[in-house]
Amino acid sequence: MSEILVRPATEEDAAEIARIYGHYVLHTCATFETEAPSREEMARRRLAVLELGLPYLTAETEGRVIGYAYANAYRPRAAYRFTVEDSIYVDPAEVRRGCGETLLALLIEQCEQGPWRQMIAVIGDSSNNASVRLHERVGFREVGRLSSVGFKFDRWIDSVLMQRALGA
Predict the structure, then answer these.
(1) Per-residue pLDDT for 162 more than 60?
(2) Mapping DSSP to helix (H, G, I), strand (E, B) and coil, where does residue 108 land?
(3) Beta strand 155-165 with 5-8: parallel, antiparallel or unpaired?
């Protein structure tokens, strides 16, 4: 595999981000969304993250976007202001090649440079072992499971909650 370049996502990345995310919406339980958002919606979501001062990253190889990750506010209430939630999606043709870990490690590093002190991962589908293992490799630990909180593809789906500290 060619070298992976991780950089801040731009407006021009929105179509590829929408394409990657759309796969997960339409074919997996990694997200509980059921309709793939448009390029315009993904661009709007990126701006909302950036307005909070949080990182939104893309990974590319040979000039092609192969994944993205971002941190967002965990919850809107003030007491949660130092806690963020990560999201990470990799082009299905590029999984298990190091892109996810590269993206997530840099996302953590960038969040540690800000005021945030906890990062939460809410992993859709408790059978999503690849995502659980990825998060474990970068220091997350499982802190809980929510049973049957989503309904997609005619079945009830659990969520796995993972957490890691940021900074000192």
Answers:
(1) yes
(2) helix
(3) unpaired
